[in-house]
Design goal:
CATH architecture: Orthogonal Bundle
CATH superfamily: Winged helix-like DNA-binding domain superfamily/Winged helix DNA-binding domain
CATH class: Mainly Alpha
Helix content: 25-40%
Number of helices: 5
Structural class: mainly alpha
CATH topology: Arc Repressor Mutant, subunit A
Order of helices and strands: HEHHEHEEH
Length: 98
C-alpha cells in the first residue's frame, strides 16, 4: 500500500471529537519523521476525509486550513487562539498502535 493510501485510510478512522498530529500519522504508518509529507498529502487529499481532525504538533491548527476551527467545532472539538483546547485529552491513537 502506498503512503498516500495508508495516510488516507488512517485519517478516515480518526473518530469524531478526536485529533491526531501529522507526525502521529506518519509514525503510525511506518514513516516516523515524515509529518511534512503527511501535510502535503492532506493539502491534496480526498475532500471526503475528515482532514480537520489532523493538527500540527501540540494541537496547533494548520495555517493552510482557514476553516479548521469551525470544522472541528462541528465535530465537538473546541479551539482557542489557534489551538485545540484539551489537546492531550483529545489526541487519538489507533488501538493497533497501543
Amino acid at each position: 500500500m502506498k503512503l498516500r493510501e495508508q495516510v488516507e485510510a488512517l485519517v478516515a478512522d480518526i473518530p469524531r471529537g478526536r485529533v491526531m498530529t501529522y507526525g502521529d500519522i506518519a509514525a503510525c504508518v511506518g514513516h516516523p519523521g515524515a509529518g511534512r509529507m503527511v501535510g502535503m498529502i492532506a493539502a491534496n487529499g480526498s475532500p471526503d476525509l475528515p482532514w480537520q481532525r489532523v493538527v500540527s504538533h501540540a494541537g496547533w491548527l494548520a495555517p493552510s486550513y482557514p476553516d479548521q476551527a469551525a470544522d472541528l467545532a462541528a465535530d465537538g472539538v473546541a479551539c482557542a487562539n489557534g489551538r485545540v483546547v484539551g489537546f492531550a485529552r483529545l489526541r487519538w491513537q489507533p488501538e493497533w498502535v497501543r
